[in-house]
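Example 3.
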Amino acid sequence: MRQPSDEQAGVTTRRGRNKERARKRVYASALTLFRRQGYAQTSVAQIAEHADIARGSFFNYFPRKDALICAWMKERTTALTRRLGSCLRCGMPVAESLGTCMSVLGALNEEDLDLSMAMLTGWVQAGRPLGREPHLDAVFAEIVECGRARGEIHATLDPGQVGELLRDLYIGVLCRWAGRPPSARHSLGADLQEALDLLLHGIATPGGPHRGRRRGFV
Amino acid sequence: MRQPSDEQAGVTTRRGRNKERARKRVYASALTLFRRQGYAQTSVAQIAEHADIARGSFFNYFPRKDALICAWMKERTTALTRRLGSCLRCGMPVAESLGTCMSVLGALNEEDLDLSMAMLTGWVQAGRPLGREPHLDAVFAEIVECGRARGEIHATLDPGQVGELLRDLYIGVLCRWAGRPPSARHSLGADLQEALDLLLHGIATPGGPHRGRRRGFV
């Protein structure tokens, strides 16, 4: 059956549509196996077997196993921006928009916990914390930019750099949360909100001997 | 020759001293090879060969290859606290102490860049961002605790949680810095100081519509 999403993706030939269907099957099989048995414990051969394709055909759809992590992260960033859509449109105060962002990120992880933990471990072990993905800094930076335009964020700050710092906090809090035994985990969204509050309002009292230090870094 | 450090470590027998000497030789060989050819590219067999011991004997000194990363991180944390000693003793303002901390961390990485980058990559690929090491949060927390006692840090904040957040920022900034091509890297210490300034003073203007939001999270 032709899917509206195929047409959106510009897949107009039957061959292209068949390839797209098989790619989706491989992707869905991978997620099922990662969720069930972990990322490192799942081989390309198992994914191919589950998707009912030859092992070598896997590479027609994904260049390496860790390309599945990229695809999943892109999908999650899309889910985040879709859920955030109304905040971004309605000009919600920046603290609330960023708070909603953290709460959606918390929910996205907790809703599909086994898969999220498998993907996080795979992402780390593939050395990805040294790369740029997930591109959440751009999502944060857009909100910060709007807030700055409304005078809610210090005018001297660079939204891009603040976005990167918010991404660092998200990843740091998520890794610490994931590293705890499940029984010792509270709400991830609440942990993220606490970290956000500290960055929004700062940890230093205004009257301390550090008063007069340069604010921001532009 | 008996070393004063052996006695400090409680190594009092000749057999114990010989074992300690061999352990140090294995450790030094590992660092030489990691620095020269990277962490993942260096095998236990190569380390043993360089240290002139049998391959199997490696495991008398270190249970796994990644135990070398732990040993190195512990050594670096010790170097950090030694260099920070005078700041902590003299009651320097908290912003300055934390700034010195970031500047020492920047210098420690830049002074032995090839080894630091090899160890960072090894640490990431061993899945360690999901663990608690390096225990820098305790170093940060101690400084924050002193600052809070002097009224320079908001009284409602938990120094332990602020310490963890400062560790998140350090690791995030370091990973982004390491991920850039060497020609695009500025001073790591300056990048860390910028991140610290944001967390100290906050990104939100005091008069925004978020005024009155709960400060801190105790």
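Chain B touches chain A through 56 residues (CB under 8 Å). Chain B has ten helices and no strands.
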